[in-house]
User: Fold these one by one.
Assistant:
Number 1:
Amino acid sequence: MRNVILRVKERFVSISVIFVTAIFLTVFLLVEDELSFTVLMLVGGGLFYFVKRRDCFKEVIVFARQSRYGFLICIFLALLTVLIILRNEHFALFMIASVALYSTVCFGLTIQLGYAGLTNFAGAAFFGVGGYAIAVLSSENFPDILSVLTGGFMAALVGSVLILPILRTRGHYAALVTIAFALLFKTFLELNDTLGGPQGLKISSMNMFGWDFGKSFFGGSFYLNYVLFSLLVMVSIFTLTRLLEKSWIGLHWDALRIDEISSASFGINISSWKILAFTLGNFFIGLSGALYAKMLGHIAPTNFTFGDSLILISIVILGGIGNPWGVIPAAFLIIVLPEKLQFIQEYRLLLFALLVILVLLYRPDGLFKKALRSFYRGWGKV
Amino acid sequence: MGNSLLNSQGLTVKFGGLTALSDLNFSLEKGELLGLIGPNGSGKTTCFNTITGIYRQAAGTTSLLGKDITGFTPQQIYKCGITRTFQRLRLAVALSVFDNLLIGDSSSLNTNLFFNLFQRSKLKQEIEKKINKVKKIISVFNPALVDKLYEPVSKLSMIDRRRIEVCRALISDPKVLLLDEPSAGMTQEETRDFMNDLHEIKTKSPDLGIILIEHEMNVIESVTDRCIVLSYGKKISEGSFKDVSRNPSVRTAYLGED
Amino acid sequence: MLLGSLDQYLINGLVLGVIYAMVAVGFTLFFGVLNVIKFSHGDVLMAGAFAALIAYISLQNFVSISIWMMVVITTTFAFAAMALFGAIVARFLVLPLRGAPPLNTLLITLMLGLAVREAVRLFYPNGSNPKPFPKLLPDTDIFIFGLEIRHDSLIIIFGGLAAICFLHLLIKKTRLGLSIQAVAQDSETARLMGINFQKIVLGTFALGSGLAALAGVLNGLYYNEINFSMGLLLGVVGFSSAVVGGLGSILGAIIGGFLFALLQTIGAIWFEVPAYKDVFAFVVIIAVMAWRPTGLLAETKSDRV
Ligand SMILES: Nc1ncnc2c1ncn2[C@@H]1O[C@H](COP(=O)(O)OP(=O)(O)OP(=O)(O)O)[C@@H](O)[C@H]1O
Ligand SMILES: [Mg+2]
């Protein structure tokens, strides 16, 4: 017991940074009028500066490295606090679930773009494939958990149609193939009457092993169901993504992304690794698309335009290409900020485009530079 | 002829109107160190690129230990046991030294998805084995590099990068090693060290056949068993360095018309 | 299921082919000198059309000039504005990323395209709706070889072809053109021979972007309507045409452009739903790309190793 108290004392700074961040984000999600929002941003900026000046972030990283379980418990408690405070706030909870699901999509894109170097500019289209798959299945009395998985499988399957031209063509023609697909996908949806045409489809709420997502969760908003499940999905897929990166598979992807010719000269089968990355990435994207559609309760072609694909790519670039850690804050910024600042809502695509251009020019590593691969904990320590 | 290690007959490569290699015949025996020399643009690198399946030949065949490997993909050729270094280094400078060396050993890695994701303790054992293997190889060239195993290649000096390239080609224990100007950019002293390292490699794996492209003639003189001279894609001379260097047409090729 | 007469399909296909070819030539030029793919190219075309529209509206209110003068002035303005824009983009967005992975150039131009599109939508008055483009060309019919052709279509086809030929001559005959060829062949050697690399790159980008602006104007003159998102599809079409022809070859780009228009025309005759013509054209083009990754014309070139 004394030991624990001592540890907590030692970690006081890190723990308070984590909790202050959590509280700040909570207030951020709650604030509605623009004046308070401005004040909040100023306070946040000040806090950030203060924390950064005293190198507290580094301490948090040290904390995470040295005692993983302590760190995870701390994050878990902080999250729990946030959710308890927000338990009745529909919109804030919806935002959290959206950030979780968009982050998951971007883990898929990270595998494709960041690991294997495959340019997929049809992210929103694969997201939509997952959504439409579940929309069709939920009118068929299919178990929901299987439909969510089917959403992922469908996205992977549709992606496999594109894989041949992507593999055959050199360089960044893959970009062209996916853009053409993204543009045609929307046309296809709008023309297809069985998929509801421009109006789209309605979707029943999620129900899994008797867990009814449409009902209030222990007295809180029904969105809590979705938040918890989305966070679960996000954490699982994040873990898978990181494990892939820290394995021989990640090594092969890095090698062929950086230099196809030298990889080929050392026996690496470029095509099969690209197929794996593309399929796996699309599976993750479709899976989150299915969940997102379930949460939204309806689905229409306007959610899956080329512009939406570009937003997804922006998140990946902003977070630091190939760094799944950076994706989460970047997704938060890109998803929540326009909702909070209504006056930028209209300008958001323009602002994001300019922001990404600046990032690519002056900080190509994004928010967080991707670290060297460490295969396991304690890697590189003698 | 049947038991020579590597054998090429009538190798011809064209780029549009340019014939970069024409009707090249050569063979490499087990344990031999063959020098490939010739002025700039004479087709030496093209020869390597063709043997390793990166360029496509217009005509000619190549065989390894009597097995025809003409038209194989680079991957297949690597698996047959031919590895190389590149004239303009092709390391992944953003990755660590360890990662780069392991790329050279990719076919020995277990890439099963389940194994990589969920059998992490077994994976860790495999990785630890690889660390030992890597350390053994690089300490032959430069023991100081062992401490830099976990650093990105971008932090290494040019010389060390070249060493890493050679190690990457050696780690899979190949039958044939193709070295494309490994000493470029090294001082004379460093070149000498490097050649000593080569000797060590040769004594350790006596069956390894090496083809060395090199502009430094004293290096060629001291290490090669035999030389081939190319000029404008044609073989103009072959034999020991002494014989070759006396050949008047070789002098003409190097010094110009007169 | 024919909605119009066959000659209408033919003329329409030719007009589209010329416009696509003009866009594709731009892609080919940029790729030639700098090995980059500029994804904002289609949006430059759109911006060029809007620049012409702005010029037209401002002139119309102040001076009374003949309609032909109007065509010349608006077109020149669009060309100049986009040429300048192209050079600026090359200088400040593309050249600084030369050392970075090629992916970054692709991403930055993709985002630039989005920015241009959004800027027009947001800042052009009522920009999210389609805008009428003035009918500056006579739309009376004439008969050639028994074909019924409108004057404006004819002018557009020949105007576009003339622009492409002019560009071709420029590249084959002038000093600037020779330097562009030299840089495209081998930029290192060209630099050693004293060619001002940056100047040539800027010049090429200006030229390609100006050509796209012309294509935008022609497109506007043909449909008498423009909108902020028209460049997206045109850009992708132009890029595919360039790739199918063989990136780097001007003749290939022209053939690619006409091929795409031909496919669309066949699609339009074949399918009842108009939107399927694009699906058809893209599917065929992508299949051709998968069949011949280096394009129909370009010789199979291996990267230098
Ligand atoms: N991918 C390619 N495309 C077109 N021409 C090429 C290509 N690769 C090589 N060449 C040409 O083939 C000829 C031989 O080049 P190669 O690189 O084999 O010469 P080299 O003997 O290695 O010269 P160096 O000593 O300078 O390395 C040169 O004229 C070169 O320009
Ligand atoms: Mg060479």
Note: Chain A touches chain C through 41 residues (CB under 8 Å).
Number 2:
Amino acid sequence: MTDTALEIAPGTLPETVLVTDAGFSRDDWSGPETRTATLAPDDRAGELSDRLCGLELIRVRFPAFADGRGFTLARDLRRMGYRGRLRAVGHVLADQYAMARRAGFDEVEIDADLAARQPENQWRARANWQAHDYQARLRGRSSGAPA
Amino acid sequence: MYRYTDFDKAFLATRNAQFRAQVERRLKGHLTEDEFKPLRLMNGVYLQLHAYMLRVAIPYGTLNADQMRQLAYLAERWDKGYGHFTTRQNIQYNWPKLPDIPDMLDALGEVGLHAIQTSGNTIRNTTADPFAGAAADEIADPRPLAELIRQWSTDHPEFQFLGRKFKIAITGSADDRAVTAAHDIGLRIVEKNGEQGLQVLIGGGLGRTPMIGQVLRDFLPRADLLPYLEAVLATYNQLGRRDNKYKARIKITVHEHGIESIRAMVEGRFAQIRPDFTGADQALLRAIEAQFAPPAFRGGNTEAHDAAYGADPVFRSWADTNLAPHRRADHAIVSISLKAHGATPGDASADQMRSMADLAERYGYDELRISHEQNVILPHVHKSDLPALHAALKAQGLATANIGLISDIIACPGMDYCALATARSIPIAQEIATRFDELKLEHDIGPMKIKISGCINACGHHHVGHIGILGLDRAGVENYQITLGGDGGPDATLGSRTGPGFPADEIVPAIERLMLAYLDLRQGPGETFLATYRRLGADPFKSALYDSARTKAA
Ligand code: HEM
Ligand code: SF4
């Protein structure tokens, strides 16, 4: 699986689309890059433990949608107490949107090609990710997102 | 037996609607073939040699009569009139068309069945002892915990895109009938100081690198199960190799990092995850347990059984092989063999499924089980009903008296259905069964597990067969390798290879020589093949296999 989107530093191109529960939008992050961090699938959440308080946006890269390590990274970051924006960046499918939200991501950033192939309605269809969530039920929470 | 809650029903309906949309989006090009593949796999749809295959989960092997009838309906409506029970408590339909599959899933949903996570790099259907809740030797029924695991693993957001498939099995009895040691995680209910807990095994698996699971935690309190499983899975998700499909299973992760280091990582994570679980899971577990309360067993004497046992040798032979001790002395566990001599192991026709459903309703408190040995089980039958049940089974061709014997063979689909196969396995099973039926040696030989796989992926569990047969491709010719001494029970052991393999037309005579040698070498009818093998080692069996072949060749 190749994905060229990830060769480009996220945020520098208008060629990417941000997906949230509200649908598609442009990246609205305008803070300094010093307040951001980017993790690759084989990084560990612990690598950021010293900087966590100073971070407002953490990007977790998904070079290939079939590599699910980023979901565990998201859980780990939330469990470490990170409360800032958490973004999945790269080859994430509309079908994975609910998983990403439940794992603790706030948003997904995809490239324009993918956004064209999987248009907004296909993502919106998963905006109800808080429903039908076994994890929330087993943990006694109303929604799936880790506290 | 577990009945779906409103939550389960709504979840499943939504999930099926999602898959229906995914099929449409694939057909319209919104999803590429690569992107669609894991999505169809996590919904049980597999691409086989000739067609798509749908693998339906039979959670912890338990079905009621209506569910069995629905399986029959699917076989008739969308397949060729039969289904194939697998070694992991699933049923496979080998000929559905992709556009029909969403309808099949909806039909399954009507009776609380699904195909979720029966394929793909996800946590698969959790398997359990097929005698659960009925066996005389049980510490506790493992199915409530298996159902809890089903709910936890279903659509778990963190573990839908693992490095490789992940299989969990659970047993509540010391006589491990769920082959827990050959699973990524094996769970065994144990008792310590009057408290029930779980022994957790990790890293077992067959396939091209067979390994027996190692103990990760000797005693895990029941209430810690989900956070502990989550710690193991998260550790594996991060650590497991993704560079090489053949090194991606957790058994390789454990092998490469060592059990001590894995244990340290898992325990560290467990400490972090444990506080996430504040008791809601235990409240759900109690509700689940209430649903698994045993049926209201009826009393009454067993005279009808005792009389038939004394008078009818056909009934007696069936009763001797196909019954297992029930927790109540006046009941029995009945195994229905899907291994009639010459039939395809594990196949059942729609008619047979319906008859079994009817019999379960009539004599078996509406319960059926599927065993990993590919047979169907009626877990609770009052002994006085056994003669009538036997007569009804006989009329349907379902009274083969061979459970645990040489013709009760596990065989994977092999070259007849599987795209990965290097050799046929079903026909070899059929020939062995037919041959020993002709020789009338089956009952003399006694307990014997032959397991056949059509390639090194080992879906037929050949490594843990007393005799394992592995079909390979040697320069375009099928060649069958034999392993001896494997055992899938509590002291799981991998079989050892005897030497060079045999071509298709020599494998049955080779097995025959092995059996004749065993009958010769054993200390008496009480000494099983496995015991004789353990006492004498491989040498006398190797000479039975190879010396005579050499003589013949000379
Ligand atoms: C205003 C209301 C809604 C609209 C306009 C809407 C529209 C859509 C559209 C356009 C699609 C995508 C079809 C495609 O694949 O091209 C879709 C899919 C879907 N919708 Fe909705 N929807 C609505 C409400 C809901 C609700 C309330 C639910 C569930 C409770 C729901 C569940 C789904 C599901 C499960 C899919 C399939 C998703 C997939 O796997 O791709 N929708 N919807
Ligand atoms: S063992 Fe090989 S041939 Fe048999 S079902 Fe598995 S992959 Fe196919």
Note: The first strand of chain B starts at residue 45 and ends at 47.
